[in-house]
Design a protein that fits this description.
The protein is of the alpha+beta class. It has three domains: 32 residues; 190 residues, Penicillin-binding protein 2a (Domain 2) (Alpha-Beta Complex), CATH 3.90.1310.10; 345 residues, Beta-lactamase, CATH 3.40.710.10. It has 21 helices and 20 strands. The strands form six sheets. Strands 2, 3, 4, 5, 10 and 16 form a six-stranded mixed beta sheet that branches. It has a five-stranded antiparallel beta sheet with strand order 12-11-20-19-18, with helices on both faces. Helix 10 runs antiparallel to helix 20, helix 13 runs parallel beside helix 15 and helix 14 packs parallel to helix 19.
Length: 610
C-alpha cells in the first residue's frame, strides 16, 4: 500500500476521533457542568394560545351603544405542574372555598387531565386577575386566559338581546365543528339569530412560557400567529328610549307592547313584562340566575310580545269589516239598526253598551257595535255567492292568513307563535260537519277560538296604516353599516278605499268614541279599543292604533292582562308611547294620565323575586 495514502488515512482518523471527543465534552459540559440550558428546557415551553375574537357591538337606531364586551379571565391549571401551592392564599384571592379547591383538584389528578390544561375557574374579573397575577409565582401550574363577556348599557330589552353561553355538544355538532369546547355562542335573542355575524373569527399565537405559565415572548417573532377578527357591528331598529319608556309604563303589570314603523316594518319597541335586567345572564352568575328566572311564577323568560296568544276582542272588528267590503258583501256606507241585541237560532246576543245605530262602517267601528259585526259576518259567511258556508269561511280564513294571522309573520327572533284562526276541518270535526255562520258567530268580534299575538295585532294595523301592505316586522337595521337583505313586502289584497274607511273609523274611536280618553292634542291619531275575555280572571285590556292617521310613522299594539276594558289602560298607554316617540316628551296636560298608568298595579310585586 502506498505509504503516502496510509499517512493521510491516519490523519483523517485522528481528526474524526478529535471531533467526536470535542462534541462529547461539549455535551457533558451542557448537561452536567452548566445547568442553565437544562433549566431553560424545563422551565420554558412553546404554547399555542387561542385568541378569542371580540363579539360585534350592538347599537340602537340612533347609534346608541346597547351591548358591548367586558374583559374577564378564565383560570386554567395543569395539575402535574402544581407544586408547593399556598392553597389558603389562592382561595382567598379568588374567593373560593378550600373544600371547593380540594374537590376540583382531586377530579383533575386522574387520567389524562393530570397532564393537560384544564378549566379551573371561569370568568373572574380583571381586578381579581390582577391580584392573582401578583402572586402567580406561588401558583405554579395555574395561569389565566383572557376572555370577554357581554355587558348591557341599560337594564332593558333582555328578551330582545338574548344572552351568550358556553357551547355544548349540540352546538359543536350543528356548527360543522366550527366551535371548540370552551367557546361561547349566542343562546337566545339577537345574540343567537345573528350569531354568524357577531362571533367574529378566532385566532391564535405561539409563545414561550415558563413553568408558571407566564408568557416569555413570541415564538419565531410571531410570524406564525393568526390575528382574531372581531365580529360585525349590528344596528337595530329599536329606539332604546322608547323601549325603556314602554317597560316603565308596564311596570307592576303583566302584558306586552309592540311599536312598528309601518313604512319599513322596523320594530321600534318590543316590550314584554315582567322582565329582568339582561346583565343577570352575563358573567359567572348566569347559570344560577337563569334557574331563578325559570322558577319565577311570573315567567319573565316568556316573551309575551311574540309568544302570548290572546283573543283580540273588538280590535278584530276592522278585520271583519275589511273582508266583507273587499268581497262586496257590504259597502263602506252599509247601515245597520242596533237594538242592543241580535237574535240567532236558539239564543239572543247583546250589545256591550248603549249607542246610536251605525249609519256606516266608520260609525260601527267608532261605537264598537257588536250586532253590526255579527250581522256583517253572518251575511258574509252565509252569502249565496258562495257554494256554501264552508267555502265562504275558507275564503274568509285565507284573508286572515294574508293579514299575518294564523302563522308566523317572520320577525327575526326565535320562538314566535302562530296564534289561531280555526280551519274548516276543525269545525267539521267539532260540529260533525253541520255548522254555519251563526254557529261560529263569536269570531266576528274577535272571540271564540281566535287568538293572536301582540306582534300579529300590530302587524295588521300596519296594513291599515299603509293602506294595503306590510313589510315583515324586523329588528335588524344595519350589519356593519350595510343594509341586510330586503324583507318581504306582503300585499293584503285589500283596496285602499276600503282601508281608508277603516282608518276613518279608527280616527272616530279616538276622537269621539271609546278611546277619546287617549286623545293627543295636536296629533291626529286613530285606533281601536278591545276587551279580551279571560276565563281565569279579569278581562284583558287591548288597543291597537297608529299616528298620524294620514302619514303614519308609528303603529302600536298593547295588551295589559287583567286590566279590564281597552279604554282604561291599553289605549292610554299606547297613546303615551305614540306621543313620546313623535314629540319626545309628554305634555303637561297629560302628565296626570301618565301618572295614573305608572301608579297602576296588577301583580303582586313580591312574586317578581319568587
Amino acid at each position: 500500500m502506498n505509504k503516502k495514502y496510509t499517512d493521510r488515512k491516519g490523519v483523517l482518523q485522528i481528526l474524526i476521533v478529535a471531533i467526536a471527543v470535542i462534541f462529547l465534552l461539549k455535551l457533558f459540559f451542557l448537561q452536567v457542568i452548566d445547568k442553565k440550558y437544562k433549566e431553560a428546557a424545563e422551565n420554558n415551553a412553546i404554547n399555542k394560545v387561542k385568541l378569542y375574537s371580540d363579539r360585534g357591538l350592538i347599537y340602537d337606531r340612533n347609534d346608541e351603544l346597547l351591548v358591548y364586551n367586558q374583559p374577564i379571565y378564565d383560570i386554567k391549571v395543569i395539575p402535574r405542574q402544581v407544586k408547593d401551592l399556598d392553597t389558603t392564599l389562592f382561595c382567598s384571592l379568588l374567593d373560593i372555598e378550600k373544600e371547593q379547591f380540594i374537590s376540583k383538584m382531586k377530579k383533575l389528578k386522574s387520567g389524562i387531565s393530570y397532564y393537560r390544561s384544564n378549566d379551573f375557574l371561569k370568568q373572574i374579573t380583571s381586578l381579581e386577575f390582577t391580584k392573582f397575577q401578583e402572586f402567580s409565582f406561588k401558583f405554579s401550574g395555574f395561569y389565566g386566559v383572557p376572555r370577554t363577556i357581554r355587558k348591557f348599557k341599560h337594564s332593558t330589552g333582555a328578551l330582545i338581546f338574548g344572552d351568550i353561553g358556553e357551547v355544548d355538544s349540540t352546538d359543536i355538532k350543528n356548527s360543522d365543528n366550527y366551535y371548540l369546547p370552551g367557546d361561547y355562542i349566542g343562546k337566545s335573542g339577537i345574540e343567537k339569530v345573528y350569531e354568524e355575524y357577531l362571533r367574529g373569527e378566532r385566532g391564535y399565537k405561539y409563545v414561550f412560557v415558563d413553568k408558571f405559565h407566564n408568557q416569555k415572548g413570541a415564538f419565531n417573532e410571531g410570524l406564525e400567529d393568526l390575528k382574531p377578527v372581531s365580529g360585525q357591528k349590528l344596528k337595530l331598529s329599536l329606539d332604546v328610549k322608547l323601549q325603556m319608556y314602554g317597560e316603565k309604563l308596564l311596570q307592576n303589570k303583566i302584558g306586552s307592547l309592540v311599536a312598528i314603523e309601518p313604512s319599513t316594518g322596523e320594530i321600534l319597541a318590543l316590550v314584554s313584562n315582567p322582565t329582568f335586567d339582561p346583565n343577570m345572564l352575563a358573567g359567572r352568575e348566569r347559570s344560577d340566575n337563569y334557574k331563578l328566572l325559570q322558577k319565577n311564577k311570573l315567567s319573565p323568560l316568556f316573551n309575551r310580545a311574540i309568544m302570548a296568544q290572546y283573543p283580540p276582542g273588538s280590535t278584530f272588528k276592522p278585520v271583519t269589516a275589511a273582508i266583507a267590503m273587499q268581497e262586496g258583501i257590504i259597502s263602506k256606507n252599509f247601515p245597520y239598526k242596533c237594538n242592543l241585541s241580535y237574535s240567532i237560532p236558539g239564543y239572543t246576543l247583546h250589545c256591550s253598551h248603549r249607542h246610536t245605530s251605525a249609519k256606516n262602517v266608520m260609525d260601527a267601528i267608532q261605537h264598537s257595535c257588536n250586532p253590526y259585526f255579527w250581522h256583517v259576518f253572518r251575511t258574509n259567511i252565509d252569502n249565496e255567492k258562495y257554494q256554501d258556508s264552508k267555502q265562504a269561511y275558507t275564503i274568509w280564513k285565507n284573508y286572515c292568513t294574508q293579514f299575518g294571522f294564523d302563522r308566523k309573520v317572520g320577525i327575526d327572533l326565535l320562538g314566535e307563535k302562530e296564534g289561531n284562526i280555526p280551519s274548516t276541518q276543525y269545525y267539521n270535526k267539532l260540529y260533525n260537519g253541520s255548522w254555519r255562520a251563526s254557529t261560529i258567530i263569536s269570531l266576528a268580534i274577535g272571540q271564540g277560538e281566535i287568538t293572536v299575538t301582540p306582534l300579529q295585532l300590530a302587524n295588521f294595523y300596519t296594513i291599515i296604516a299603509n293602506r294595503g301592505y306590510y313589510i315583515e316586522p324586523h329588528l335588524i337595521k344595519k350589519i356593519d353599516d350595510k343594509n341586510p337583505d330586503p324583507f318581504l313586502k306582503i300585499d293584503s289584497k285589500l283596496s285602499k278605499d276600503n282601508l281608508e274607511a277603516i282608518a276613518q273609523g279608527l280616527l272616530q274611536v279616538v276622537d269621539i268614541g271609546t278611546g277619546r280618553r287617549s286623545k293627543i292634542p295636536g296629533l291626529i291619531f286613530g285606533g281601536k279599543t278591545g276587551t279580551a275575555q279571560n276565563p281565569h280572571g279579569d278581562h284583558h285590556s287591548i288597543f291597537a292604533g297608529f299616528a298620524p292617521i294620514d302619514k303614519p310613522k308609528i303603529v302600536v299594539a298593547t295588551i295589559v292582562e287583567n286590566a279590564g276594558g281597552g279604554s282604561a289602560f291599553a289605549a292610554p298607554m299606547s297613546s303615551l308611547i305614540i306621543e313620546k316617540y313623535l314629540n319626545d316628551t309628554i305634555m303637561n296636560s297629560r302628565k296626570w294620565l301618565e301618572k295614573s298608568i305608572l301608579d297602576a298595579v296588577f301583580i303582586d310585586s313580591t312574586m317578581l323575586s319568587q
